Amino acid sequence: MARRSAPPNSGPAFIPISGQRRALVDPNESAFGRFMREEIWAADKLPGNINIVAGLGMFIGGILAVRTWGGLMIPA
Fold it and tell me: Is Membrane a UniProt keyword of this protein (predicted)?
């Protein structure tokens, strides 16, 4: 049977906001700028974003390759 709880005295299972380092934020920053900083360029989310861009690049590259050389795949 699987264990359902953390070991005793292991501390909280979340990172409290007070323990995180807060970056200096411009109070006049736009919503788009805040989204880019918090979701796109954030260090903890960057590897996943790079994977998404690589997958999207492969998808678009595959479409372009089939559209360009698709006629070569049909037996003559």
Answer: yes
